[in-house]
Amino acid sequence: MTQQPRNGRAPSVKDVAAAAGVSLGTVSNVLNRPAVVSTATRERVERAMADLGFVRNESARQLRAGTSRALAYVMLDGGNPFFQDVAEGIEIAADAADLSLFVCNSGGRAERESRHLDRLVQQRVQGILITPVDPDAPHLAEIARRGTPFVMVDRLSTAGGHCSVAVDDVLGGRIAVEHLIDRGHERVAFVGGPGSVGQVRERCQGAREVWEEFGRPAEDLIHLPTEALTVGEGRSAGERLAGLPSRRRPTAAFCANDLLALGLLQHAVSAGLRVPDDLAIVGFDDIDFAAAAAVPLTSVRQPRQELGRTAARLVLDEAANPDHRHEQATFVPALVARASTGAVRR
Amino acid sequence: MTQQPRNGRAPSVKDVAAAAGVSLGTVSNVLNRPAVVSTATRERVERAMADLGFVRNESARQLRAGTSRALAYVMLDGGNPFFQDVAEGIEIAADAADLSLFVCNSGGRAERESRHLDRLVQQRVQGILITPVDPDAPHLAEIARRGTPFVMVDRLSTAGGHCSVAVDDVLGGRIAVEHLIDRGHERVAFVGGPGSVGQVRERCQGAREVWEEFGRPAEDLIHLPTEALTVGEGRSAGERLAGLPSRRRPTAAFCANDLLALGLLQHAVSAGLRVPDDLAIVGFDDIDFAAAAAVPLTSVRQPRQELGRTAARLVLDEAANPDHRHEQATFVPALVARASTGAVRR
DNA sequence: CGAGGTGGTTGAAATGTTTCATTCGTGGTG
DNA sequence: CACCACGAATGAAACATTTCAACCACCTCG
């Protein structure tokens, strides 16, 4: 804990070597192969490091090693707790592998995503996990071409030039709507958009499929489009829903994610609709706030942390294992029934 | 966009130089001082870079420059949207300065925080923003001693050896409780804990101060302690509150943050209490979910993004400006009145 | 006594970039 | 024609680390 007067430059291995009276190679050995150096010198070196307040310079290590000790996750929407939970899963895995994790947020904007990716490639991160704005964007293909391992999260790979980790969204849509049919609803709204988001399309498709299979008329599954997957958009969908003529008004809504569902719920309550009696609601993702809503939300649960952990595992395998095979990991979503569909006595 | 066959190594300036038939110094000039190189050669070099798919190696730059082009934010609780918003503000500032941002999450665990800090110092980040688990922890002092600029976020510095950015939490507590007194409440609960969290202590103190100033008996301000600032703890506080004998049961609760308030709200609603008629609730932070709750939450607003932006500004100043003066930036919180205190007709 | 091994240490090379003093060539000026 | 100035390009050094072949005592065994 003693300390040389700050001379403006952080002490390097060279300084440590000088202070301990050994060669620079020996210091490096103490750092990387403590076993090969004799106890006496090792202690001397360690003491010198402590005295000088030596800290390894990671950039120099990287330069030499050719790759950094970091992983990156570029998430689609930092404001959505779902992605935070995925990130948490990734961080756990990164931590276990003793890697740093860059968490970036594209906020749904392709140009911001692309800037992040550029920086990450420059940093020579070991791998990139990404929930992309557009899975077919050229800058993604570019990454793959460069050879940086990358894994798509929450989106199944179409091309197959890389790993991906996702939940079966079509199945999720089916489960949700089947639950509503089960509970006797005959007119149901699907709330979600924009259609450019694959997750929305697939959840909607699942809903449609099951609706048809039960022989329900297509016009009784009403699509309420939204411009984003946010609470605000959920509220506005609520307004439109409340404005429908009662003849057409659905008795239940399946929302493409929980944020929409919470917004819808809020508007419904404040408009005096009783949930679930006047309007049942199913969300998607099962974020913590879903259970915490004033009327706890029925939702389709995704294994959020596990999604992240698996993605990290795959990207690490790709980085380390020369004969890595790309993998498309699919998880099965599950319905969590709560009060918002009357599945639980309040 | 043409591309040499991958020979296993990413192309370097040297390769570009060879391909363009110029010296390595010239390539560097094209990269860093395009003005000094003639148009003809510049174009030749740029073409070579594109052909080879050249990407600057950030570690080598760093090594040479002695510092990285990155900032870091170590947040206290990634699950709390408040910190996400602060992070968003920081990211905006980092982006403007063309810096990468490491976002780390200590999750309230000192040992995890310390591991993150170690890594960040090794990376030679330009500066560290942190909402610490314990502002007096020795590893923080250590950072300062090493000379890495750092700024405390959402926590005022006591020692003053560094900048800090925070909201006046005592004032926030005062505002909240004053609002409740205004609305005629005579028995109020303060919900929050643990006491080791400075923010909680100060918000509580503000509440007490104003309560006394209005001449209210101390025993009518009831402290309901919690073990964390989470929705779950809010629910459990709700149970305890509901269990109080009606003689002592408060008609209003001031929660140390919005997560607690949402949990409390949820339990209250499911226990059949009407909010705000049977129980008024005030939260703290004004996260987006507060407005989105089924009974929109009255809350004490902090300028979340601005907190982040300011913190980033300060740390950048400290990194760049040799005669930087440490600054304690304090923001003024503001009450946002909503339905949960009956301040707005539903 | 010499050969061979061994545990410990060393020195040099290599990683990719930036900087800076130097050199080169050319065109203008006295 | 000699000199200078100037724009353009160059080459070497420096940054902090890791690796690896070489080396050095010293010991053991034949």
From TrEMBL, chains A, B:
Pfam families: LacI, Peripla_BP_3. This is LacI family transcriptional regulator. One of its GO terms (molecular function) is DNA-binding transcription factor activity. It comes from the Bacteria. Residues 11-65 form the HTH lacI-type domain. The keyword Transcription applies. Keywords: DNA-binding, Transcription, Transcription regulation.
